[in-house]
């Protein structure tokens, strides 16, 4: 029979880990319990009582961009081109402007396109392959960077590729010609031979003395290529090299020799691609028919992380060279 316990003296004590007051809410000592339990909803002030907003004239422009737009930069370059042509008594339409858009996004190219620019130059195969399908098909793409023969197949597949300006070997010319045959391109692709007029090892291009032989090879062995002229990159202007005139003069002499040797190649249709942001006025003085301008139009370039490879073959160059920096 159950017997009630008369004393709790011998009952086991509560284990140390058990808190008998665990269900009791401990209130903040700073807030009385009654007020805490009977707090009223928060009352919001009417908008009319708030401080009036700042007037537009007092808004800071500290974080607003003051960099010139692509269109304003483009207008300035066009003006400089026009002024140089007038200074050296050249017809303005005798010199074309190639906007070098490497490392710049399609939106920047679109801004220049909407402002009437149609010819754009790219240095890296992977960029051109990625950008071309995203932009209008009436853009005239020029490839102006160093080209490896195993990348020629990617260029051959771009329908609105107008000109490859960096042919510097018979091997490369033959490879590009064969890739164009494979894709069944209807019209021959225009090409320029790159000439190393400054005799710098880090730059691509053939020696000036090899021009005649190179033109002869292309005319005889590359029916899908159309020889259009020559391209060169002048040496960087600095204290030790105050002008690029000697390099442009050398390329002009190469053109004269080619036109003398081959009767069907005339100066009127010959492209001399020489002159960039820092020296295109001098190039115009020495007969340039195409200037390649990038930084002056699009601003500083953004060499971010290496982009995704195209078909695991097309790569960005491992580092920036003097040749690629100066477009």
Q: In terms of topology, how is this protein built?
A:
Elements: H1 33-37, H2 70-87, E1 96-100, H3 106-114, E2 119-122, H4 125-131, E3 140-143, H5 152-156, E4 161-167, H6 170-183, E5 189-194, H7 211-221, E6 225-231, H8 245-261, E7 271-273, H9 280-285, E8 290-293, H10 295-298, H11 322-325
Q: What does the model show?
A:
With 327 residues, this protein is of the alpha/beta class. The protein has one domain: Alpha-Beta Barrel (TIM Barrel). It contains 11 helices and 8 strands. The chain has an 8-stranded parallel beta sheet. β4, α6 and β5 form a beta-alpha-beta unit. The longest helix is centred in the first third of the chain and has 18 residues. About 7% of the residues have low confidence.
What value does the Rg take, in angstroms?
A: 35 Å
Following the backbone from N to C, one meets helices and strands in this order, namely HHEHEHEHEHEHEHEHEHH
Average pLDDT figure: 83
CATH superfamily: Alanine racemase
Q: Given the C-alpha coordinates, what overall shape results?
A: globular
Query: How many structural domains does the protein architecture include?
Result: 1
Approximate helicity band: 25-40%
Distance between the termini: 105 Å
Query: What composes the largest sheet?
Result: 8 strands, parallel
> How many beta-strand runs?
8
How much of the sequence lies in strands comes to 5-15%
Give the key terms:
alpha/beta, eight-stranded parallel sheet, 327 residues, TIM Barrel
Report a brief summary of the structure.
By secondary structure, the chain is α/β, with parallel strands linked by helices.
């Amino acid at each position: 029979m159950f017997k009630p316990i008369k004393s709790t003296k011998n009952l086991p004590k509560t284990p140390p880990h058990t808190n008998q007051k665990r269900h009791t809410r401990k209130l903040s000592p700073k807030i009385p319990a009654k007020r805490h339990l009977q707090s009223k909803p928060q009352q919001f002030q009417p908008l009319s009582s708030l401080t009036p907003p700042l007037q537009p004239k007092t808004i800071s422009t500290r974080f607003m961009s003051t960099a010139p737009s692509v269109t304003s930069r483009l207008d300035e370059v066009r003006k400089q081109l026009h002024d140089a042509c007038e200074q050296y008594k050249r017809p303005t339409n005798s010199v074309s402007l190639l906007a070098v858009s490497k490392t710049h996004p399609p939106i920047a190219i679109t801004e220049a396109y909407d402002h009437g620019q149609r010819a754009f130059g790219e240095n890296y195969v992977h960029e051109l392959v990625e950008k071309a399908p995203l932009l209008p098909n009436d853009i005239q793409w020029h490839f102006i960077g160093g080209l490896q023969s195993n990348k020629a197949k990617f260029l051959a597949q771009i329908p609105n590729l107008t000109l490859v300006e960096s042919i510097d070997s018979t091997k490369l010319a033959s490879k590009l010609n064969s890739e164009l045959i494979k894709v069944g391109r209807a019209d021959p692709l225009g090409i320029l031979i790159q000439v190393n007029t400054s005799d710098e090892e880090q730059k691509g291009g053939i020696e000036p003395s090899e021009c005649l032989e190179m033109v002869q090879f292309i005319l005889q062995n590359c029916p899908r290529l159309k020889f259009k002229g020559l391209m060169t990159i002048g040496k960087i202007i600095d204290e030790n090299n105050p002008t690029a005139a000697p390099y442009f003069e050398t390329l002009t002499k190469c053109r004269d020799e080619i036109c003398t040797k081959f009767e069907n190649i005339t100066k009127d249709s010959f492209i001399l691609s020489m002159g960039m942001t820092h020296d295109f006025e001098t190039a115009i003085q020495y007969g340039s028919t195409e200037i390649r301008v990038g930084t002056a139009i699009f601003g500083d370039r953004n060499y971010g992380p290496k982009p995704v490879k195209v078909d695991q073959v097309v790569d960005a160059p491992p580092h920036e060279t003097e040749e690629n920096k100066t477009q």
